[in-house]
Write a structure and sequence with these properties.
Blueprint (H helix, E strand, L loop, with lengths): L1 H59 L5 H65 L5 H28 L11
Helix pairs in contact: 1-2, 2-3
Length: 174
């Protein structure tokens, strides 16, 4: 009964932590998206203003004249510059979303590894209760447990290093 209650409490805390991680990623993504959306709106407005300016100017000059050719050239340059800014902002928005999604995936991976470590420790304790102290089976079980815990610990360290921006794969020489 007590173990069941403790397990349910741990599960509830893990679910709460996962929900908090999802909220953090959502807020980060929304904040970055809003900033980029505002800049995109500005660029789109500048593009519309440039088109309107170009249309007004073209109405004042003769078609085929040197002034018309120069105005077309200036308009093309301005639109190319604004188009480049727009593409950069769209790429920036995609990168921000990707980074937030990667951070969320790494947090989930760390949480999963924590869960696996807890399960392995619980399994090991139950197994020790079933075997004779000092027996060959106990020795083998301890070796297996140490190997599994070391592997899970290394995988967790790599994920945490990646989450903290330390590179990860090189953190433990993997």
């Amino acid at each position: 009964e007590e173990r069941y209650h403790a397990q349910k409490l741990v599960e509830a805390n893990q679910q709460f932590g996962a929900a908090a991680d999802r909220r953090e990623v959502a807020v980060t993504t929304v904040g970055a998206k809003q900033a980029v959306d505002g800049n995109l709106d500005n660029v789109n407005a500048q593009m519309a203003q440039e088109k309107a300016r170009h249309d007004r100017k073209m109405a004042q000059v003769w078609n085929g004249s040197a002034a018309a050719v120069e105005e077309d050239r200036q308009h093309a340059e301005a639109m190319a510059k604004l188009g480049g800014q727009k593409a950069d902002l769209e790429n920036q928005a995609a990168g921000a979303r990707g980074a937030a999604e990667q951070k969320y995936a790494l947090k989930r991976q760390v949480d999963d590894l924590d869960r696996q470590l807890a399960e392995e420790n619980g399994r090991f304790q139950r197994r020790l209760n079933d075997v004779e102290a000092g027996s060959e089976i106990e020795r083998l079980e301890r070796q297996r447990h140490d190997r599994v815990v070391a592997d899970l610990g290394n995988r967790k360290a790599v994920a945490v290093a990646q989450l903290n921006g330390a590179g990860g794969a090189t953190a433990l020489g993997q």
